[in-house]
Design brief:
Elements (H helix, E strand, L loop, with lengths): L1 H10 L37 H5 L6 H15 L3 E12 L5 E6 L4 E6 L1 H4 L11 E11 L4 E11 L4 H16 L17 E6 L4 H13 L4 E6 L7 H15 L4 E6 L13 H9 L4 E5 L7 H5 L2 E2 L3 H8 L3 H9 L1 H74 L1 H6 L4 E3 L17 E6 L2 E6 L10
Parallel strand pairs: 3-5, 6-7, 6-8, 8-9, 9-10
Antiparallel strand pairs: 1-2, 1-4, 2-3, 4-5, 11-12, 12-13
Helix pairs in contact: 6-10, 7-8
Length: 454
């Protein structure tokens, strides 16, 4: 019975339906190799007894092809869990490794077209689950598992591992340092937006900008925001805006989604484009709970696209209301400035007065002492001068004509004030006056006599 089952199996073997499991670099051997397997059409009665007694002989290729067909036709795609061992990525992008547990291991291959979707290569010994099909690599007769998807156990698995690897790299280069982040301008004239031109994120951003700051000009640099190659498009869109030099600030944004949907903003091209951008960049990717590499590198991180729009422009209504309060605030401010200046001036004058007083006090005391000394010396000098004057006055009084008159003498004068000194100055009948001590006496010459005649 065992032989019959084996014969049935091998007799059904033929060309495999799918040849994609064979690595491109190693082609499967041709069906012409080895002895051709008998088929149902070739079954004929034996020609003689010797031929009927000979065993059927199968080539190695036929056996491997039959086993391969058996595996692929009877075992559907399945998930297998285990630890990664010997992970190797070839130049062509194919990944070769083993899945193993405590008792066994399974040779595994993941071809480039599927491997390119991995966020990063798993680490040695990492526990994963892989989706794929069992097959046989005919050229070597090796039983293997062809994987189309690999997921690490735990929250977000390989995605989180790739995130942390890139984060560590950028942090080591200083791109996550808060000190390098630039302030976002408060009153931009032009806002650049990098996002999908057909996505809800752009509609939300434009709605908020129109409501808050309708005077702001908006430049949209569109790109895909998810899928293969999206990170390169986002990076180029940032570079295009930076080259124009027109935006005062750039928003990099997209709506929410799974970690796979947001992954373009966790890739190195986007991170380096943001870091190299000469214009401040605001990152608003996903929802509030989502944190991406672009959030960490950007100059400002906000939770949503709408929040990004609110962060880059002021609220026009609030701004107008604030401007309405400016005159009153300005008046209060000016009054405050004047009062502070007046108080400061008064204080300065008080300090200056005290300083001058301290400086003048010694001089004032010296002046007071000098005045006392001057008064004393002046009084002494005046007393001396007064005594001299009194003495001179006494002597002068003794010599004064009035003093002589007081002693009984008189002075004769004409009407015009000429002093009559001798007898010859008088003539008979002439009128003259006599100046005596207490007045004058009018006299008339009756006769004159000289001393010789007497």
């Amino acid at each position: 019975m065992t032989d019959d089952l084996s014969l049935d199996l091998f007799e059904d073997a033929g060309e495999p339906a799918v040849d994609s499991v064979t690595p491109p670099t190693e082609a499967a051997p041709s069906m012409a190799e080895g002895t051709a397997a008998p088929s149902e059409g070739d079954a004929r009665p034996p020609q003689d007894a010797d031929e009927a007694d000979r065993p059927k002989v199968w080539s190695v290729s036929q056996v491997n092809r039959a086993v391969r067909s058996l595996l692929e036709d009877t075992v559907d795609a399945l998930w297998i869990g285990g630890e990664i061992g010997g992970w190797t990525r070839s130049r062509a992008g194919h990944c070769y490794f083993t899945l193993k547990d405590e008792k066994a291991q399974l040779r595994t291959v993941m071809f480039a077209r599927e491997a390119q979707h991995l966020p990063t290569d798993p680490e040695e010994g990492m526990k994963v689950r892989a989706l794929g099909t069992l097959t046989l690599y005919e050229a070597r007769g090796e039983y293997q598992f062809v994987v189309t998807k690999v997921e690490a156990d735990g929250a977000e698995g390989l995605w989180r591992l790739a995130f942390e690897r890139l984060r560590s790299l950028l942090d080591a280069e200083g791109l996550l340092d808060p000190a390098r982040k630039r302030p976002v301008p408060r009153y931009p004239e032009c806002v650049g937006v990098v996002t999908s031109p057909t996505g809800a994120a752009l509609r939300d951003i434009l709605s908020v900008l129109r409501r808050r700051a309708p005077w702001v000009r908006v430049i949209v640099s569109g790109s895909r925001v998810q899928g293969e190659g999206a990170s390169g498009e986002v990076a180029r869109a940032i570079d295009r805006l930076a080259e124009t030099g027109e935006p005062d600030v750039i928003i990099v944004s997209r709506g929410g989604g799974s970690i796979e949907d947001l992954w373009a903003f966790n890739e190195e091209p986007v991170a380096r484009a943001i870091a190299a951008c000469p214009i401040p960049v605001v990152s608003g990717v996903g929802h509030e709970v989502d944190v991406t590499i672009s959030d960490l590198v950007a100059d400002l991180r906000v939770p949503t696209p709408s929040a990004a729009a609110e962060a880059v422009v002021p609220d026009g209504e609030a701004l107008a209301e604030g401007l309405g309060r400016v005159p009153a605030r300005l008046a209060r401010g000016l009054r405050g400035v004047v009062e502070r200046r007046r108080a400061g001036l008064s204080d300065t004058l008080r300090r200056l007065g005290r300083g001058v007083e301290r400086r003048l006090l010694p001089n004032r005391q010296a002046v007071d002492r000098a005045l006392v000394d001057l008064e004393r010396s002046t009084r002494g000098a005046l007393d001396t001068r007064r005594l001299h004057v009194a003495n001179a006055a006494g002597r002068l009084d003794a010599l004064s004509p009035l003093a002589t008159l007081g002693r009984g003498y008189a002075v004769a004068r004409t009407d015009d004030g000429q002093v009559l000194r001798g007898v010859s100055d008088f003539s008979t009948g002439m009128r003259f006056s006599l100046r005596i001590s207490d007045g004058e006496v009018v006299a008339e010459v009756l006769d004159t006599t000289t001393e010789d005649e007497s």
